[in-house]
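Hello again,

I reread your note about wanting to compare the complex against the isolated chains. To keep things tidy I'm splitting this into two emails, and this first one only covers the full assembly. Below are the input lines as submitted, including protein chains and any nucleic acid or small-molecule components. They are followed by the predicted structure of everything together. The single-chain runs will come separately.
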Amino acid sequence: MIGASLLTIVVLLAWATVCGVDLVSFPQAMLSRPLVAGTVAGWIAGDLEAGLRVGVLLELFALDVLPVGAVRYPDYGAASVGAAVASAGAPWELSIGVSAGIGLLLGAFGGWSLQVLRRLNTHAVERAGGELGRGGFATIRRLHLSAIARDLVRSLVLGGVALTVAWLVVRYLRLDRETATALTLAAVGAGVASAIGGAVRGAGTNSPRVRWLAAGGVAGLATAAAAWSFR
Amino acid sequence: MNHRMRALARLLAVQGSWNYERMQGVGLGFAAAPLLEPLATDDPARHAAAVVRSAEFFNANPYLASVALGATVRAEYDGVPPEQVGRLRTALCGPLGAIGDALFWAGVLPTLLGAAITAIALGARWWPVMAFLLVFNALRLGTMRWGLAIGLANGMRVGAAIGASPLPRLATRAGIAAAFAVGAAIPLAGAWLAHPFGWRGTAGAAGIAMAGLALSHWFGAQLTAPRFGLLALGATLLIRWVTA
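Full-complex prediction:
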């Protein structure tokens, strides 16, 4: 990030904006999932490995809540871009803990900005209530396109904030090796706990899903033990 | 581009103007415009009234909103009384929301994410991310197209058509697949990220995960994932600062 070219920064900002708009407005193609947003941001920043690791870690947190209807959820799109950029170029073992912190903070900020956007959209629709009642497609088009434009601005601002925070962290934050390692392990543990918590809540109680979740967990543990014992 | 394709393209932004008053209503009205265009030349008065109704309150899973769009537009062309069109629109919110959320948000999405994370943890690099995007979007675009077609074909009888379709069964099965895929992905992802730190590091991460689950059980929904993550990172920094 420190030595990134202007073109790289512009592309990262554009990608963060696309991820922000994708979450709700257009096209909801799951570009905003941390796994996608983080991996692509890492690739743009020249460190695919860091992007993948940050993406998987933040995805564990994101699995906790599903983006259903009016539910309040974090916006991890631009947050994952900032987090991946903060890790790019550094040994991931020492950087993804801090990156997870950046991603979680920015994700919560993004979620709050989404509530503000929805309130602004509500005011716009309330003001246009009379016009909507009289008919005419022009009012619908104006309301809809202006709301998407608002989300575009929100996402651009979020992307700018995410990249600025990433730059500040890379530029000024200095941690010793032990602290950086401890933060990475804390983030991994918290991510695993969040994903398990979300999966258990999603499965409910006394259902086949709980049994399949447990079966998956056993299969995952066995595969992990087998895979890493041969490395 | 024909009317259906234009409507489908606009449905990709059905939540673009999501608000607390009409929720997806304005977005659905925006998507309905191409389908209602022929009515404007045939009967301008009916067209104007249909446009007003098209933007009224609506909320469902965005990928199944196409079913409601097709059914209400067909009802407008069939000359169904306005209050019945309104009732159809309202009645579809619940089932399309429940089935769509169960199928996509609690089924397809976590299944594919779990599979992608598993593949990455086992040594694949970027391609599972690409595969996730391709498969998810192929499924949701196919569902949207099918939904619009079944809505336009059945109009007021769309509820029975959905009930007879494989959608409700698929939603149940997708939830089971999601549970297994996520269950398998979590330990693999944790091991992939913690393995370089050896057994002590992995045990430390597992200990934090156990503490997180205990706290989550204690505090319930109050302790969201971001809150717990930030709490864990803050506590780690504090412990390092005190013990340094």
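For quick reference: Chain B has ten helices and no strands.

B.
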